[in-house]
Amino acid sequence: MRLTSPEGEAPRAPSRRQIVAGSMFTAGYALAVGSGAQAQAITTPTENIRTADVRLSGAGDYRLPAYLARPRARGRHPCVIVVNEIFGVHAYIKDVCHRLALEGYVALAPDYFDRAGDPSTLTDWEQIRTIVGAATHAQVMADTDGAVAWLRAQSFAAPRFAITGFCWGGAVTWMACAHNPAFHAGVAWYGRLTRPTSGFYAGQERPWPADVAGQLHCPVLGLYAENDQGIPLDTVNEMRAALDAAGNPSHSQIIVYPGTEHGFHADYRPTYNEQAARDGWTRALRWFRQHGV
To answer: Of the residues 79, 262, 265, 267, which is catalytic?
Structure first.
């Protein structure tokens, strides 16, 4: 089974380029690493930052692993929780943490899928789907609360929190900003906005970003692709309408990048778009700082 969208939903008829790009999802991150798609992957030097594998108390007091990157400079630094794609906490997600640490942030990437396995090493889509599907909305929100609590207890972390996530993690970003008032800002990269009709979580009774547009505790910047086969523009417009209907008290915004596809920031994928990725990154950092993080 080929994953042709961020959460397995059946897409519209794809172009030839989208078929090639979609093949990278046939076996997920593990296949991309071994293919030519990995050639443009960015590797951020770590000499000027500190990194560590840590454990925090997640849902049900589970000892959840997480990846940490932070500045070497002494003092307390603002924090960003980094939420992974469906392929887990792999090299790209860790590199995002490195980039944030070089910008002066404590970046923490919880391994939300650890209870069920590590999808980054797998080449079978059904196995990946089973692992991702096991991470319920309630568990993910509680794990995120645990990440915030862990950061609060660290001497190097200032009590100023943001969250950013990609693909699966983009949806988590919106939901976490409606769930936990600790966050000052969120940046959601091409995360699902409305209830899926098939694929991950289709049968679960749980809210989606469009359902909580009026409950956001902080402003969220949504960064989306014009040609995303899994998140069509009508769902982006539905989210905008939901924000407007609620009066958008959080002052959230959504940017759509013309001519881009899902995963345009993921530099290990063939859908990577350097111009959009750079612009989105600049906007994300500006968004954090604008809102006190």
So the answer is: 262
- Given the residues 177, 228, 265, 267, the one annotated as active site: 228
CB 194 within 8 A of CB 228: no
Q: How far apart are the first and last CA of the chain?
A: 41
Catalytic residue among 97, 167, 177, 218: 167
Structure tokens at 45: 């030097």
Spatial contact of 197 and 9, defined as CB atoms under 8 Å apart: yes
CB 187 within 8 A of CB 166: no
143 is catalytic: no
- Concerning whether 262 is annotated as a catalytic residue, the answer is yes
Q: Is 98 a catalytic residue?
A: no
Q: Which residues, listed in sequence order, are joined to residue 46 by a DSSP beta bridge?
A: none
* Predicted TM-score (pTM) above 0.85: yes
**Residue 120 Cα to chain centre, angstroms:** 15
Would you list the domain boundaries of the chain?
A: 16-290
Query: Are 95 and 45 spatial neighbours (Cβ–Cβ below 8 Å)?
Result: no
pLDDT tens profile 237-289: 999 999 999 999 999 999 999 999 999 999 999 999 999 999 999 999 999 99
Distance CA 4, CA 10 (A): 7
8-state DSSP, 85:
B
- CATH number of the 16-290 domain: 3.40.50.1820
